[in-house]
Design goal:
With about 120 residues, this protein is mostly helical. It contains 3 helices and no strands. The protein has helices at about 15-60, 75-80, 95-120.
Length: about 120
Amino acid sequence: MPRKSDRKPTVESPIQSKQQQLAQMEEQVKARLSKTRTFLGKVPALKEEVQKKQQREIVDRFNRPARIEGPVDFRLDFVAAKGAAPAKKLRKERSGIPFITIVLLVAFVVVAYFAWKSLWVG
């Protein structure tokens, strides 16, 4: 007959059930931690991929062909790139030189008229 110490208990004690629950929770936490670490390892590559996709979308949006007749040959963009036109200036950014020139021209005409009138006519 087996001894009492060799027999397996049929009913688990609360301590053993709590230990099993803690062991399962430990495995779950370790699995979640390993998933998180692998994801953090992939983050720089994912970030770079998203940035490249955004840059590609920007380039595609601004480099559309004038007519769509077939697949676009992107080599032409690098060979004969369009020169960017300078941005239009706002009214307050424009210089006042043309206005000053007109004022000086009007003043010269007025002075010349009075000089002519006083010297030759008068």
